[in-house]
Amino acid sequence: MPPVSSRSVKSLATAAEAGRHQREWFAELRRRVAAGEPFALLNADVPHEIFRTMDIPYVVGQWWASLVTAKQRSGHYLDLVRRRGYPDYSEQYNAVTLGSAFDPEPDEGPWGGLPKPDIIVGEATGDVTRKIFDIWGHEPGVTFFPLESAAENEVPVNWWELMPHRWEEAVGTARLDLLTAELENLVRFLETTTGRRFEESRFREVMALVNEQEEWNRKARDLIARARPAPLSVVDSIPSVMLPQWHRGTTWARDLARSFYEEVRERVEAGVGVCREERARLMWIGRGLWYDMGFYQRFQEEYGAVFVWSMYLAIAADGYIRYGDDPMRALAARFAAFGDQLYTPPWSSEWYVKEARLHGIDGVVHLVSDDPRGSYFTARALESAGFPVLEVHADNVDTRTFGGDVADRVAQWLETVVLPRAGSSRTSAVSTISDASFAAGGS
Predict the structure, then answer these.
(1) DSSP code, position 102
(2) Whole-number CA gyration radius for the chain
(3) How far is the CA of 223 from the CAs of 266, 299, 314, in angstroms?
(4) How many whole angstroms from its chain centre is CA 341?
């Protein structure tokens, strides 16, 4: 269907609502913590659902780092890390948030600043990440609760098809036994230290709400993948998906996921395109470029190149849904292989190729940071599958690493590699359709 409307999308209604809610939620969280409630700082790859069930206020460290970076304040917090004698050039995504612990004027931070946590929970992936959390644990009044990072020799084929119901087969019994036991220990630790009770009936409600939320995200992902032209770019899909993701297990997050799908569907049915003439569909692999989200829109008007894919909506669709009679084991299955899905080949590399094919991608821009592993294999797998890849070596929260020539490099790559190939493939597709139509007696 040709676009009946072509305009640059500034913000979906769901993206605006997500931003509004996030501000109100954080203000309320600060009030609760100031009143004496326990407060937790959680890593993105740990089970937040336990804290949701127990009504323990928490903030996700990566969200806080993204907010700080969007406010152009990451350099300040990295400087505080450096002044303490720690490296400011390694694992910046977590180091930025660690800098908040060293701020002599914490209330001057974005939105009033990050409250001091009582509890830190993070997965012990890699030497650097574990050391950052250990430093948090040395702060007065802060307890670090680590979760182990286990591996499995057997890698399932098409894990994304197995995960909703056959997760035991996909993840492996030994890994699930370990994480389930650790989560049960976490519950006992939280009950002892906070006085809150863990109620299984409430836990089942939270798990059901999460599944509903991610099912709506899956429908939105599939719709965007099929839609021509692209109804929106990642600039709008990222906040519409990720802000509710930090509120998993609430009716608000479930309902916003449904509204996001409905808003995307309305655009598709109306033939709305994100740019005047779509010539190429791009994939952004890596974390969001929080200090310059406008980067993704620069190539739409001049080149008709739209970033239609980011990992945030895709992993919501394929990486979270878990059904089963044992909710704690299902929760363990949600996170036991979470890092593998995004960063460990062949888990990650095969998934990226699948997603590139599903979305009709013409080219991939790959943000390669120092800490995520498997970047080399991801790029090689995509190139072997026929997708041009441009690697950008930079950190998503450290502006010092992002050279001024990146936009020029992307533009040159589009002009010399992506657009000629995309144009050729589209011409071939139109020719094939025309030939088939003629053979069938069409005109």
Answers:
(1) G
(2) 22
(3) 11, 23, 12
(4) 12
